[in-house]
Amino acid sequence: MKIPSIGIGILCSFFVLNSLNAQVADKELSIRQILEKYYLKDSFYFGCTSKARYLKEEAKPEKAVFLREFSYNTPENEFKQAQVYPAPNAAWKADHYRQLIVMARANKQTMRAHCPISPQCSKWAQEDNRTANELKEVMTHYLATLSKELEANKDVVRWMDVVNETVATTKIADATYTYKTGDWFGPLLGTDRWQNPWLIIGQETDSELKVPTYIKLAFEIANRNAPHIKLLYNHHGGMEQEAWDKIKQTILYLRAKGLRVDALGWQAHIPCGFEKVAGNMDKLSNLIDWCYQNKLEFHVTELDIKMGKDAGPEIFKTKANDVADTYGAITEAFLKKIGKGAVGINCWTLTPRFSKSEGSFAGLYDNDLNPTPAYFRVKEVLLKYAPNRH
Q1: Which residues sit opposite 233 in a β-bridge?
Q2: pTM for the whole thing?
Q3: Which member of 14, 57, 135, 294 has the greatest number of CB atoms within 10 A?
Q4: Pseudo-torsion of CA 139, 233, 178, 194, nearest 10°?
Q5: Tens-digit pLDDT profile for residues 151-184
Q6: Based on the structure, what is the number of domains in the chain?
């Protein structure tokens, strides 16, 4: 049957209008809704950090945004050794992380437990008189006990960070210790500096790497007590080749010892404009490729954007589009490799945060809980690459 030309015009207008309506509707979706609507289940995760203060009445507005936008949840500090089990015979402090697990379960969120053996440790562990046996005892009790509890909550907890910040990414020194890029990071004098006392436990002598014993021990404990939780080796810094090469070799060493390592994580506390520095995005792409070739997941575990030590609050407005460019570039680099190693992005802050040592960091929302250009850019990229949308 021949359709009159006017009928064809009406039909075309109908499809164009529906398409435009769908696009408008899509722009109104939350990040969580975009993933649920257009991405295969478990193919890609985009989340943010939760905090103990979300359990308090005054944090209800921020918590509401967090739960609306994200189906992937990583508690910031609540699993760490410094809070849970800081010293021998200390009380086991589990209230906060257990409540956040309950919150995640009630809101159908998937969780990564940020509980690494790392510089995120107690003042007790950093004291200069600590012995290898003391540190090993506290570490073993902490990680074994927590691993069993994470395993018991495997319906919510999918990953755990086993170690973090193991290799120096720049020169760090005091009167006694010196570490350069690519060295195993270790202790420093006193307790007022970022340091990694667990290196005192010793180093393995069966390879040129001299892998710190605490790394091998941590994966042994997690392998034994959390068989259904995916185990992640996390790292900080930028794209420093010496550091990443050592970590890659260490993962292969651990696997040769029969230990399971499921994922490699990169913190990605990166400067605004990271993507514009020659080589950075190629190195990130190659790192994801290496993970895929070695049957590892790759995660961006702590994404936020550095605005500088001396940056005032006005920079979040004057540099808003630059921040959006950086968030968008990292997200796009990941989405190009879904199914080829890239698995999850976790933002380390919802709203701007400030660090005494590093300055200001930009989030996806401002301090009044208004979405920023970065938020909208992330959604644009998610929709652009959505596999079931086109």
Answers
A1: 163, 264
A2: 0.93
A3: 135
A4: -60
A5: 999 999 999 999 999 999 999 999 999 999 999 9
A6: 2
